[in-house]
């Protein structure tokens, strides 16, 4: 995700990225303006890369959020009901420890009875050489989410979900416009913010937060409203797991759910519960859980080789995750084993004539991938192909040469 793409989005605050255009991959974090932590801000870049930001820029971002807040819809669409929810998306960004790299992931799940089935996944590499401050996570998150949305609409428009769960906040935000609301308003999407950590700010300070945290939520679906000192209800703390309590702290396993856009408080809470494992599994809603797992799988594959590989090898790992299903990854790995190529050999050095597979396999899988990444080494490609994604083992993808995604996705 390069600077030219970010600037083309037209989001008001992104003019500040011009300040960092010459920084390369160096992070450009900025000092938080509030002592309380926002969801996700424990993953900031290192202190030696902190760059101060002008107050005028913060004012522009505040004005943008306030303007968007005035357009936020805090009620369900007329005629829409939760029973009509067929497909739901999950958006998450996972950060690589100690670096300014991150992986943004979008998954789409489809309801089949009470179960959710993964039907789509996509990820993009994010360079965190972006401004950061508490309350303005949209600067880091929205560009990646917009790219993922654009790619979904370009490659699989029939899988666009009815609603999106965003790992972060919606109304539960100092200006009542977190990333979930920002994305929903700008693109007119139904969105819900799902935060794992309690956010504190002026109207909802630590005292208010402590009152919420002291509330025991022993049963699945139990909730307590997040009410600020002003009396405004920002959302709910919700118990989302039916797992049997092993101690008093188990009831603290809760999520902080807030309206993003085009939902009422009650429906937002019920949609999140509908997406959680009702049989006692993870307390994280399935779309966000799968997006998080996918990002972690990509980062694990990168960690195996990052000390000896070029930065562009991350794109190889992204393409393996995005474009190849479990069967295709195993087939390509089997081809590498059969030809006996050295670990340092480039993929371009493998002759198609040396591959004892059906011509269709070579034409639809090996040759397109070889053309896409001729300079990847066998060692690097093996690490990517050995990526373990058991939650996606049943997800089937088109042959590489026929995917609408492929080059179109990578060209954005």
UniProtKB/TrEMBL annotation:
Predominant localisation class: cytoplasm
One Pfam family per UniProt: Endonuclease_5
Coiled coil: none
Keyword Secreted: no
An example Gene Ontology molecular-function term: RNA endonuclease activity producing 5'-phosphomonoesters, hydrolytic mechanism
Cell cycle keyword on record: no
Record's GO cellular component terms: cytoplasm; nucleolus
Cellular localization per UniProt: Cytoplasm
InterPro entries: Endonuclease-V
Alphabetical UniProt keywords: Cytoplasm, Endonuclease, Hydrolase, Nuclease
Biological-process GO terms, alphabetical: DNA repair
Lineage top rank: taxon: Eukaryota
PANTHER family according to UniProt: ENDONUCLEASE V
The protein's name in its UniProt record: ENDOV protein
Species assigned in the record: Symbiodinium natans
Gene: ENDOV
